[in-house]
Amino acid sequence: MTLNDDRRDANRDDKRAKPETAQSRFGDLASPLIEEATRHASTLDKHSEPEELHKLRVALRRLRTLFWAYRPLLDEDFDTRQRAVFKYLATSAGSARDWDILLELMKTLDVKGLDEPVKTRRASVLATSIETIANADVKHVLWTGLKEANQQLNTGRKRVPVERFAKKRIDAARGQLKKRIKRALRAKRSDYAAYHEVRKAGKKVRYLLEFFDADIKPKLRSKVKSLKRLQKRFGALNDVVASHELLSQGTLDVGGSETRHALRALDAEQKQRFKAARKAIR
Length: 282
Prior knowledge:
Blueprint: H1 3-14, H2 22-42, H3 50-69, H4 76-108, H5 115-136, H6 138-155, H7 162-186, H8 192-211, H9 218-221, H10 223-248, H11 256-281
């Protein structure tokens, strides 16, 4: 039995008594994410695997989404600062992983001559990321943010039932996703930004559905699978676009012919992944 199964059973038992509030739920949702993020941050070194960086970035992104959900109940300036911190740390963690993705794409597309330059660049970027995260004192920053958020939530005068709160915020996120899908369908293929916005909005809805799984109707919970499929297609497109941008920066110590060949291969792959992403939202 999962935590959410237990929570659903508890919710049914307690509904006749005192309904749980959004404010009381916040700490239960945030604490595991902070524990996960600090655990991954504390183990980073020059030998860190790509998956370790990815898990740290995902935990920080989920925290950012959680704070977005609670934005109506938090001080706006505080919420803006906290989510900026999460974005900064997630970007730092993701920098080295972007080079890992490029390396994997070069293998998939059978592009030769870039392995060692990419690995060298990745090592340099990883060292910078580790230093940035260490200097940020992730553990202190995240737990301090949670403490202040809880203080604001617990001293607020208005209590909001968690079921009502969850539905309202999920509806808001789904509304954003629908608007961004419409915008992407009207956009040209060269306008990748519109597709990137769909990817981010889809992640937000998925994370919220997972956060409040115990508080929403089964019909809403069933949306998670389709959002995962959407995220997979758009994530695949994002990987190619991001890799193309890395190569275009000219930071690798390789010949021009190797770079041009790699960029042509990425261009061709990007067209295929763009078609797959567009098909997913029609």
